[in-house]
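User: Run a structure prediction on this.
Assistant: Running it now.
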Amino acid sequence: MLMLVNLGMGICIEFKVLAALVFVAGVEPDCRYVDWSVSFKRLGLSECDRLGDMIDSLCRSPVGRYADLIDRLERVRCCSIPFPWQEGYDYVHENWWYSMETDSTWSLCRPGYFLTGLYRSVFKLYLSDLEEGRCTRPRNHPSKYGHCEDNDISDCFEQAKCCSCPEGSFIVGLYRGNCNDLGCLDKLRCCTLAESPH
């Protein structure tokens, strides 16, 4: 009789552990494309349309006949923050005025923060007119990342297509190459969330 009780408790414990694992595994980021084709043609902030979402892809229209202007950045892919990072969010506006005016330079979110939007100047049309990055982190996320890598999109971003971070990582920085056109956005710095809350 004692063996049956222990066996029953063991099965119950195993079932609870299995259910917890299924729950965690099932909470994948919910990603969708957000249209910037209107908002990014004028002064102001273009951002993900849901609180806390992070950008993992930039999508552009074809290169213009005479110039490759930043308003050809027409869509981004925004992803929800996965479990266990839902405890409210902190936002900052990173000053990229100087970095986006300088060739061969990174514009970065501060450690632990992920890109959620871009702020552009009025009547100006080039990378130097991206003045701020809007970056966020969950409040229980540390000031560091899991794994980061620099993803070369120089070939990808000269065409009408979406250029993305590796699966499971999100944009934390943009690299301006040796010119001021949209196609000179040469790299994305892509990072995963930290392994556990701080």
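The first strand starts at residue 31 and ends at 35.
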